[in-house]
Automatic annotation (TrEMBL):
Nucleotide-binding in keyword set: no
Pfam family, one: F_bP_aldolase
Protein name as it appears in the record: Fructose-bisphosphate aldolase class II
Pathway recorded for this protein: Carbohydrate degradation
Residues binding dihydroxyacetone phosphate, per UniProt: G180, G209, G210, S211, N230, I231, N232, T233
Recorded superkingdom: Bacteria
Active site residues according to the UniProt entry: D86
Native organism taxonomy: Bacteria, Bacillati, Bacillota, Bacilli, Lactobacillales
Length: 288
C-alpha cells in the first residue's frame, strides 16, 4: 500500500475553505528531509514535487519516490504527503503514473491547445484509473524553471473551462506569475483574470512561481481560489544564503566544519524555517 495520499480531498477542502497547501520542490536528500520536517512540526499536509530536471539530477523518478518514502519511514512522518511530478511532459507523466506517484502535472502549455487538451485527457484517464491526481496548465508561467520556459501568457477563461471539464484535479493558470525571482518592474498578479477563472470553474487553482510574491498578493489570490502554491526558488535562496554565511564566517575551516553533515546543516535548517513560514502564510490548517 502506498504511503502517499492523492491531492483530491486535500485541495478540494483548501479551495472550499479559502486556504492553500504548499507544494515544495525537492532537489536532493537535504531538501526532502527539510520539507518533511517542516510539515511534521507544523502538523500540516504537504505536497513534495520533483521537476523532470531535478529527478534526472538525483537519478530518476523511482529513486525520488523511494527517497521520499524511506525518509517518511525513518522520520516517522504521520502528516499526509502527496508525491507529485512538477511540469511533466507526456512521457514523464506516464512514467510517474507507472512509478506510483500519487499526483502528476502534465504541462502541455507549449502545445497547440487542441493537443494540450487531448494529451491531458489521456493522462487523466491513465491516472484516474489508479487513483492518481492530475494537474494541468493553461496559459503559461513566465520565466524559466529547469529548462521549462514560458512567456507568461495569461490563461484564457474558455480554455480553463475546457480543460477543467476533462476532470483535472487542479489547474495551473498563467496570471502574470513568473518562475524564479520577480523583476523590479513586475506588475503583480492579474487578479481580474484569476477572478474570472475562479467564477467559471470549481477546480482548485494552482499558483506557480510562488517565490517572491508579496504576502498580501498571495493571501488575496488564496481567498479567490488558489489552493496550491508552488515554491522552489525561495528555498534555494534561503539554502544558499545560510551556506554562504557559514563559509564566510570560516566555519568550514574550524575543526571538521568541512564535513557535509555540518556544512549543509545551516542551509537545511533555513529550508525548514522557510517552509514553516510559508505554511503560515498559506493558512494551511493542522491535521486533526
Ligand atoms: O513548479 C514550481 C514552481 O512554480 C516554483 O516556482 O521557483 O518561482 O518558486 P519558484
Ligand atoms: Zn512551476
Amino acid at each position: 500500500m502506498s504511503v502517499f495520499v492523492n491531492g483530491n480531498a486535500i485541495f478540494n477542502a483548501a479551495r472550499q475553505g479559502h486556504y492553500a497547501v504548499g507544494a515544495f520542490n525537492t532537489n536532493n536528500l537535504e531538501w526532502t528531509r527539510a520539507i518533511l520536517k517542516a510539515a511534521q512540526e507544523t502538523n500540516t499536509p504537504v505536497l513534495i514535487q520533483v521537476s523532470m530536471g531535478a529527478a534526472k539530477y538525483m537519478g530518476d523518478y523511482k529513486l525520488v519516490k523511494k527517497l521520499v518514502e524511506e525518509e517518511m519511514r525513518v522520520m516517522n512522518i504521520t502528516v499526509p504527503v502527496i508525491m507529485h511530478l512538477d511540469h511533466g511532459n507526456y512521457e514523464a507523466a506516464k512514467e510517474c503514473i507507472e512509478a506510483g506517484y500519487s499526483s502528476v502535472m502534465f504541462d502541455g502549455h507549449d502545445l497547440p491547445f487542441e493537443e494540450n487538451l487531448e494529451k491531458t485527457a489521456e493522462i487523466v484517464k491513465l491516472a484516474h484509473a489508479k487513483g492518481i491526481s492530475v494537474e494541468a496548465e493553461v496559459g503559461s508561467i513566465g520565466g524559466e524553471e529547469d529548462g521549462i520556459v514560458g512567456e507568461g501568457e495569461l490563461a484564457s477563461v474558455e480554455e480553463a473551462k475546457q480543460i477543467a471539464a476533462l476532470g483535472v484535479d487542479y489547474l495551473a493558470c498563467g496570471i502574470g506569475n513568473i518562475h524564479g525571482p520577480y523583476p523590479e518592474n513586475w506588475k503583480g498578479l492579474h487578479f481580474d483574470r484569476l477572478q474570472e477563472i475562479a467564477d467559471a470553474i470549481d477546480t482548485p487553482l494552482v499558483l506557480h512561481g510562488g517565490s517572491g510574491i508579496p504576502q498580501e498578493q498571495i493571501e488575496k489570490a488564496i481567498k479567490m481560489g488558489i489552493s496550491k502554491v508552488n515554491i522552489n526558488t525561495e528555498n534555494q535562496l534561503a539554502f544558499a544564503a545560510a551556506t554562504r554565511k557559514y563559509i564566510e564566517a570560516g566555519k568550514d575551516q574550524e575543526g571538521k566544519g568541512y564535513d557535509p553533515r555540518k556544512l549543509l546543516a545551516p542551509g537545511s535548517e533555513a529550508i525548514v524555517d522557510t517552509v514553516k513560514e510559508i505554511i503560515g502564510w498559506l493558512g494551511t490548517p493542522e491535521v486533526k
